Amino acid sequence: MNRLYAYLYDDFLTDSSYQRVLANVETRCSALGIQGRVSRLAIFRSPKEIVEGLVHDGAQNIVVVGNDTTLQKVMWFLPDLPVTVGYIPLCKPSDIAGLLGIPVGEAACETLAARRVETVDIGRINERYFLTEVLLRDARATVDVDGRFRIGPSQAGTISIRNLGGVTSNGLAMSNAKDGWLELAIQPSVEEESPSRFSFFKKKAAIAEETKMLLQNGSIQSREPIDALVDGHVLNGFSFSLSILPDKLKIISGRNKHLEPVEQGLVE
Amino acid sequence: MFTNQKRSDFPYNGESAYMPVTPGAGASSATVIARGVKVEGEFHSQGDVLIEGDVQGTISAAGTLTVGPEAKIQANITAQEAIISGEVNGNLQIKNQAIFHASARVKGDIVAERITVESGASIDGRVQIGGGQAAAKKDLPVIQKEETPASETNS
């Protein structure tokens, strides 16, 4: 048993369909010398208390086992702990695993053992950390950037504040999790008038162009309460503060990672 | 009645965006203010800026500022270079070259090192050619409009 490693299994892995792959993962980790204590997430157990207990017992590497949702369940507090984060994705959604260059399944054990540690930025919305993005769908909101200007869709639109991942309007890579900036993207929704006199057939469509810029501090403001999807978790409110914490999280990634895909312009 | 556009034609569908990407896939580095988006305040960029939406306040860009044909700007502008195709109400102070395309509609004074004006462009204000570099070095404030009637230049 390697005391430096601790594994955090999602509760869905208790399903019998995952027993075989879990056994393979444990065998593989044991062979690689990185086996460690296992804890399981559960509905009535605080993931933060579980992880803090593991850290208290000497774990320096917290390996999340499950899928992207599992990672998102712990990402809101992990950056504050003195640990390196590992990830073994066993099923979809596994988009974050793709960005980190981690293969799905027991092959992720090899990536874990190779221990290529990347230090990445972490976003913060109010007091909550996020690794990937904040998403507001069909929102009538504005984003205040560094207290200097406000930007938002003239009507409603989808607003994204991304740290990791993202696509441009051309479907190309955008976000950079190592540059110390958050990327703001706005896609207005427009009413597309149709020849029909029935409003039912007036289709709401997203226009092709996407607004994009970078920010380090800001806030989201809305006159009505809105839902912000933060790493898959819903926050509701009128106002959300935003900031970026550069080089905040150590995470083990694979060789084919995509953390800094393209060059970017800067908005101060 | 029904749109012929396939779902795959929409490059971004508003769903979660953290998807795997192709390395080196070359997104543009410019800041983009697209159509249907409004900006109010002191907008500053260290790089290139493309504006297709509405901006009120001030704009400064360390790179090239491009104002699209549908853009509506009510702001004083400072930039390294400018390519104007839309509507600008405000003064422009351009360090190098300013290009005004045929669809450009400018109400304000212009200072630039070099100016190119396409036939059909409308400029209502004073134009100073060759002052862009000097203005940038002295960090001059943006020119205030005078009380005298503005002249219109169509070339």
Structural class of chain B: mainly beta
Q: Any idea how many domains of chain B? A: 1
CATH architecture of the largest domain in chain A: Sandwich
**What is the tally of beta strands of chain A?**
15
In angstroms, what separates the terminal alpha carbons of chain A? Answer: 49 Å
The chain-level mean pLDDT of chain B equals 78
The figure for the number of domains of chain A is 2
Shape field of chain B: globular
Task: Determine the number of helices of chain A (DSSP H or I, runs of at least 4 residues).
Answer: 5
Give the DSSP E fraction of chain B (strand runs of 2 or more residues): over 45%
Name the shape of chain A in a single word: elongated
Which helices and strands, and how do they pair?
The complex is a heterodimer of chains A (268) and B (155).
Chain A: E1 5-9, H1 19-32, E2 37-40, H2 47-56, E3 61-66, H3 68-75, E4 84-89, H4 95-100, H5 108-114, E5 116-125, E6 128-130, E7 133-139, E8 141-145, E9 149-153, E10 157-162, E11 182-192, E12 203-206, E13 211-215, E14 217-230, E15 233-253
Parallel strand pairs in A: 1-2, 1-3, 3-4, 4-15
Antiparallel strand pairs in A: 5-6, 5-15, 7-10, 7-14, 8-9, 8-14, 10-11, 11-12, 11-13, 14-15
Chain B: E1 31-33, E2 37-45, E3 49-51, E4 54-67, E5 72-84, E6 87-89, E7 92-100, E8 105-107, E9 110-117, E10 122-124, E11 127-129, H1 132-138, E12 152-153
Parallel strand pairs in B: 1-3, 2-4, 3-4, 4-5, 5-6, 5-7, 6-8, 7-9, 8-10, 9-11
Antiparallel strand pairs in B: 10-12
